[in-house]
């Protein structure tokens, strides 16, 4: 079926990437790779970079052959997927048209006017950006002309330059003009793969997936490790963490999930150590195992969901004790350290991990939980307790070697 109306496209506006200097091209390449990877399973799209914007559209062959409904559906799916690509500040559905003013009017008539009508907006304004400086009309002139055109078509609507209910954007670029209504905020951050690799300690709770997401958003590629404690923790807890890994993988390259069983270590802690230190010693064992795994994987850091003061094992003094277990080998990044639980939950809802994290399955930290955990531990005192576990190094080694990649 031939294309009659102007094709619908998606514009991706750079975020922080636009501020990059000499090595910006490296970030752009990663961004393009990621955009291509998320679009590939949906349909055939072309991707074109132009002045801090990526233009995405269905290939000409496809627009010539498929019907408008199908095209709208494919663009809709692409749009949803692109909202999860890091490095993009805004994602905008738009129409492309020729650059002469009559073609721009026609495009506005077909695309923006119905939206203004459907939304029953009382006020609007037009905003124009013109990167083609040789264009015969200036930006304010184009905006004024387009505003006038809309007012003629919709006599009940008013221009409000200061606080319009809807802004109609006209971008006059090198080859075409683009008409849109502003789009939506993108995922922000920096492109996947632009900032090293991290090993996320992923439990089934709310915090750790959000923490992993935060670092992925800065361009870090992730592996994840989940410490289980069978038979105290069951397959459902494992399944929950696997699902969380899958959700994170929608934003970055696939997150490989490693699992290590702490059952024997937990039993040894319980038998040998003072009860109020259980959680901290367990946490230190997790860090030691995670450091070893991270080094084997070539990761640059550990990532945890700790937040200052959230629980006894996350006080300032407790963090010293946990941190010491890494022995300076790798930094432990705690992107949530200064966040309130309510903010963390908001993020969890936004990124899509909330509904999974809320499932009630037992975590290994909730097994043998001390009744009165220490809140201001001294490292020396904790080490004194830890040393009471006979052959802890051997237990750690065995646990590590029995570790697996989750299927
Ligand atoms: P979360 O909501 O992420 O489970 P939490 O508030 O329950 O965190 P803790 O249980 O004290 O906090 O754990 C602190 C951090 O230690 C977690 O955010 C996570 O990074 C890591 N962690 C805790 N338990 C596990 C586990 N079973 N497997 C992997 N990492 C874990
Ligand atoms: Mg937890």
Largest sheet: 9 strands, mixed
Helix/strand order = EHEEHHEHEHEEEEEHEHEHHEHEHHHHE
Low-confidence stretches: none
Q: Give helix % range.
A: 40-55%
The geometry reads as elongated
Distance between the termini: 45 Å
> What is the number of helices?
14
- Radius of gyration of CA atoms, rounded to a whole number: 27 Å
Distinct ligand kinds:
adenosine-5'-triphosphate, magnesium ion
Write down the overall mean pLDDT. Answer: 94
**Structural class label:** alpha/beta
* Tally of DSSP β-strands: 15
Strand content: 15-25%
How are the SSEs placed, and which strands pair?
Blueprint (H helix, E strand, L loop, with lengths): L7 E7 L9 H16 L5 E5 L3 E6 L1 H6 L2 H15 L5 E10 L3 H18 L4 E8 L8 H15 L4 E2 L6 E7 L4 E4 L3 E5 L8 E5 L5 H11 L3 E8 L6 H15 L6 E6 L1 H10 L5 H20 L3 E3 L12 H11 L5 E2 L7 H11 L2 H4 L21 H8 L5 H10 L2 E2 L2
Parallel strand pairs: 5-6, 5-7, 10-11, 10-13, 11-12, 13-14
Antiparallel strand pairs: 1-3, 1-4, 2-3, 4-8, 4-9, 7-8, 12-15
Helix pairs in contact: 4-5, 6-11, 8-9, 9-10, 9-14
Bound molecules: adenosine-5'-triphosphate (ATP) and magnesium ion.
The site of adenosine-5'-triphosphate has 21 residues, from helix 6 and strand 11.
């Amino acid at each position: 079926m031939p294309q009659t109306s102007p094709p619908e496209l998606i514009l991706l506006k750079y975020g922080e990437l636009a501020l990059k200097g000499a090595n910006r091209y490296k970030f752009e390449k990663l961004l393009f790779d990621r955009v291509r990877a998320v679009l590939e399973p949906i349909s055939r799209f072309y991707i074109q970079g132009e002045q801090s914007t990526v233009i995405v559209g269905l290939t000409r062959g496809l627009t010539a052959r498929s019907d408008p409904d199908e095209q709208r559906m494919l663009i809709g799916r692409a749009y949803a997927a692109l909202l999860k690509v890091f490095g993009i500040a805004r994602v905008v559905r738009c129409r492309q048209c020729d650059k002469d003013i009559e073609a721009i009017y026609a495009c506005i008539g077909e695309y923006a006017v119905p939206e203004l009508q459907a939304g029953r907006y009382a006020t609007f304004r037009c905003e124009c950006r013109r990167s083609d400086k040789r264009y015969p009309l200036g930006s304010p002139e184009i905006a004024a002309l387009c505003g006038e055109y809309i007012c003629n078509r919709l006599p009940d609507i008013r221009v409000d330059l200061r606080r319009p209910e809807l802004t109609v954007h006209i971008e006059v670029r090198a080859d075409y003009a683009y008409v849109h209504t502003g789009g939506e905020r993108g995922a922000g951050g920096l492109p996947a793969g632009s900032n090293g690799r991290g090993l996320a300690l992923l439990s089934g709770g709310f915090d750790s997936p959000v923490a992993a997401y935060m670092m992925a958003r800065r361009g870090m590629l992730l592996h994840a490790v989940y410490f289980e404690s069978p038979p105290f923790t069951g397959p459902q807890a494992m399944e929950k963490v696997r699902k969380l890994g899958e959700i994170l993988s929608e934003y970055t390259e696939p997150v490989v999930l490693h699992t290590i069983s702490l059952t024997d270590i937990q039993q040894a802690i319980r038998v040998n150590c003072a009860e109020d230190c259980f959680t901290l010693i367990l946490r230190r064992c997790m860090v030691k195992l995670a450091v070893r795994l991270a080094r084997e994987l070539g990761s640059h850091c550990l990532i945890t969901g700790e937040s200052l003061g959230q629980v006894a094992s996350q006080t300032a003094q407790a963090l010293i004790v946990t941190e010491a277990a890494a022995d300076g080998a790798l930094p432990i990044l705690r992107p949530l350290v200064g966040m309130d639980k309510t903010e963390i939950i908001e993020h969890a809802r936004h990124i899509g991990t909330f509904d999974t994290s809320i499932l009630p399955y037992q975590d290994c930290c909730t097994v043998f939980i001390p009744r009165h955990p220490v809140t201001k531990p001294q490292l020396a005192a904790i080490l004194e307790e830890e040393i009471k576990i006979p052959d802890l190094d051997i237990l750690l080694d065995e646990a590590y070697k029995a570790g697996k990649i989750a299927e």
